[in-house]
Amino acid sequence: MLKAVLFHKVCFKTLIYLLHGDIRTMIRRSPLEQYGRAKHDAQAEFATAHEKTLMLFDGAINFVGVALQAIDRSDFELKGKMISKSIAVIHGLKDCLDLAQGELPSNLYDLYEYMVERLFKANLTSDSEAIKDVQGLLKTIRESWAKIPSEVHQVSSIKTC
To answer: How far apart are CA 115 and CA 133, in angstroms?
Structure first.
């Protein structure tokens, strides 16, 4: 059953922080950038749990993509930051799984653990292939989430983040 994930306000705040940074970063942005971020934050606040899950996947996919570009440019500081953000998002996804709901959340948990391990090692060695592997897995899972019928988007469980 699709009772695997439940998002709570804590997860929303984590989503905003991971995707955009903290408030101190927001203050240093131009007014146009602040408007764009505020609009995106408002969309996230009113999004369903299903939409928030997709946003988290999009963020993680984007972060690993930037990490790959950083490796190509030998920008190891940016690579480290982007991989760290990717790992944090994956941990966020993992922490919101309700493992009492059966095999699906358990399998996702194991897959998320695998991705974190691959990213951690890739960060140490700048292994582009490992990062591409994780990016592919994230895209595959994201595509699967996007195909979930809308009538089951609001299914919830007792798990809280």
So the answer is: 9
Whether the full predicted model's pTM is greater than 0.85, yes or no, is no
pLDDT at 39 over 90: no
CA-closest candidate to residue 56, choices 19, 23, 9, 2: 19
| CATH code matching the domain that covers 9-147, chosen among 1.20.120.340, 3.30.300.20, 3.40.50.2000, 2.40.160.20 | 1.20.120.340
* Residue-by-residue DSSP string for 78-143: HHHHHHHHHHHHHHHHHHTB-GGG-HHHHHHHHHHHHHHHHHHHHHHHT-HHHHHHHHHHHHHHHH
Residue-level pLDDT at 89: 93
- pLDDT tens-digit readout, 81-111: 999 999 999 998 888 888 888 898 899 999 9
